[in-house]
Amino acid sequence: MNGLQKIFKQTALGERPTGVEWFDAVRHRAVLTWGEMELPDTKTEDYRRFNLRAAMESVACRAEGDCSMFEPLDLEGEVVRCDNGRVADAEYSILTPPPIAEYGSLTSAIASAVLNTALAEDAVVVRVARGESRKVVLDSRFKGTKGALAVSRVLVVVEEGASLELSDVCRTEGEVVALRCREVIVGRDANVKIADVVENPEGTVIDHRYTSQAEGSSTRALFGDVSRGASRVDVVTLLNGPHAEAVCDGVYVATHGVRDIRLDVQHLAGECQSSELIKGIAAEGGRGSFAGRIYVAPDSQKTDASLLNRNIVLGTDAKIYTKPTLEIYADDVKCSHGATVGQLDPEAVYYMRQRGLSQQAAERLQLLGFAAEVVERFGGQAAERIAAAVEHKLQTL
Hints:
The protein has helices at residues 3-12, 21-34, 52-57, 111-119, 346-353, 359-376, 381-395, and strands at residues 61-62, 78-83, 86-87, 124-128, 133-143, 148-158, 163-173, 177-186, 191-199, 204-213, 218-225, 230-239, 245-255, 258-267, 273-283, 287-296, 303-313, 319-328, 333-342. The chain is an alpha/beta fold. Strands 3-2-5-7-9-11-13-15-17-19 form a 10-stranded mixed beta sheet, covered by helices on one side. The longest helix has 18 residues, at 359-376. The termini are far apart.
């Protein structure tokens, strides 16, 4: 019996109960669901470069590292600290009554979400009441030795007419495996802005981000990942009501490890808009992979959607794979998609060198300009943190 099977056995047999009956019942249902599933790998998943089966088979135990040594985040907002999946403040914990009906809705077919639900021992809950406006900083800390698994779950509910600005910062220490899942439910005419910052020196981050939007709602998301460790990110957005709008931008720098990103935007109602711009840089043997889909359901007329993936590869050892797709079942739509994988522009580098810059400085400036478009149009402290991390990373290439 491997480490993951032992952890499952503990959960299924109730050897690690949370003491909250309804939450343990949801976990148990997820265990039963997982019993009918198999861990996917690169042979059974379409266009994936990250092997989920291999990552989870390396798990030996739960992460129990001391996360108190991480520096506090210097970001504006209510700070919610979560250490290896355990919420530090009971005010934000799902283990605090009453039961939350929205939790557990992902325990059907999404492998990472089912696994997360089955093994979670706590979860962050952020609820923004009708008409309210909040700014929240989620400080997710993970620490563990090789083979240690940390499970983190976040549930965000933004009610009608409310607004939320969420900065979600994931930091790891050691070769921990962080299995994360965030579920965001956006009410009618609500506004949500989310910045995801991944700082993962040597661990593995498996992340599922799910958003469900009601009529007239809007979301704007930005993610940045310049780590050396491996990461896999699934972003699923459902536009369930008319006039909903979703924007998702991202930038990553892959060196040594793997960056595997999948975006799935589903237009399930008419007159909705979506826009995605993802930029990747691979160097020093790094691997980047992007698979994006825009789905337009039947009768979702007046859809306006765009999906764009731009990439730069440095050197012969680095690789980036990209596959944007459109799946459209309505006839009155405006949809576009595109992707490029190229190298630095030699003419632009030559132009800058003519003005006194060194070869290295000219190349770095071009890369910074390439990444800046994504970050600058989002704005805010979390975006500035991403920009600083990208700049620091590029200085080491």
